[in-house]
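ugh ok so i messed up the first submission bc i forgot one of the chains. this is the corrected input, ALL of the components this time, i swear. 365 residues overall. if the numbers dont match what u have on ur side tell me asap before i send this to the collaborators (the ones from the other lab, u know who)
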Amino acid sequence: MATTLTLPKWYDLHTHFRQGANVRHYIADHLAMGCAGALAMPNTQPPVALVTGPDTASAWSIESYRDILLQAGADTFDQLIVPLYLTRDTTPRMIEQGASSGLLRACKYYPPHGTTNSEHGVPMDEWIGGDVFKAMEAHGIVLCIHGEQHALSGSNYFDENQTAESTFYTRSLPRILDAHPDLKIVCEHITTKTAADFVSSAPDHVGATITPQHLLYTVGHLIQGLKYHLYCLPVVKFEKDRDALRSAVSNAGQSKFFAGTDSAPHTNKATECGCAAGCYTGGCAPQLYAMALEEAGLDLESETGRKAFESFLCTNGPAFYGFPTSAESFALMREPSTTAVLKTEEGPVTPLPSGMGLEMHWAIA
Ligand code: NCD
Ligand code: ZN
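and heres the new structure output, hopefully the right one now
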């Protein structure tokens, strides 16, 4: 009999459901992998940069984007959070009103031009100490951070001693904490030892999400054969970084690190010279997380191993955002499973395991 791990349904606290006809497919893939709820990123076109009210040519509202998602199948989720994309038009009043209506739970910082659809972002230096962050701090609104220093290039952007992420965590994060000691922060999709160490030693209201790809792979896997389905931002890093992420998640009793897949489907992945950033892990994220935690040395069949996995995947995230662990369960079975390219009218979406030729050895029961 194959080993079965029965777990509470889990939460994906960073994912991209996009817009248009494909939203339905992406949400269906999330539901099929035992996901109880999601934080759906606001980097649509136009961005989700208003809380309520009618959409305009330059911004959608959380209210209307949530409706789109709910109508495309997300009504089955227990929780659906859409963070507000922080732009030059964000005001403290929007934060106050959004907080009192309950529609606003989180805001998203994008480094300008740092990743897919991030051109509306405003540099972090302009937010620190300002009224928007003060209002978020006062109303318990979570700051979700894409932590990479913007506008760096060449070896300042990426080399063995420093990357856009390590620079951001060294320069900006301590300043945010000093200026806003009560601001709840999620350091999203962290990839470096610098970021993992920062989060571990920060106060309890600073947490982090980690993706399956950053726990499984390093930059060598990306470069050997230019496996562009592994290309996402922040880019996969070095062995010492992956080790730090692995120890962060396998430390039994930790409550700061939780699942956020950053599943980011692209129907036109390859461009003329280069490719779009984002790995698609809809349908297979818990299987990949289970493999990654085993590679990190956890025995998922032991009580401590299973507990560490459950904390990371199912309980720490909802606890951080202030909602209960799911009362429903799903199960993973230790048996080989495969993924298939999702064929859509907008083009194919290749899930990470297919793109990497990876055979999974866990399956959704
Ligand atoms: C994301 C996307 O495609 O929307 N891409 C990615 O590589 N992670 C944007 C993001 O979260 O940075
Ligand atoms: Zn993302």
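quick check: Residues 303-321 form the longest helix (19 residues). that seems consistent at least. The chain has one domain: 9-326.
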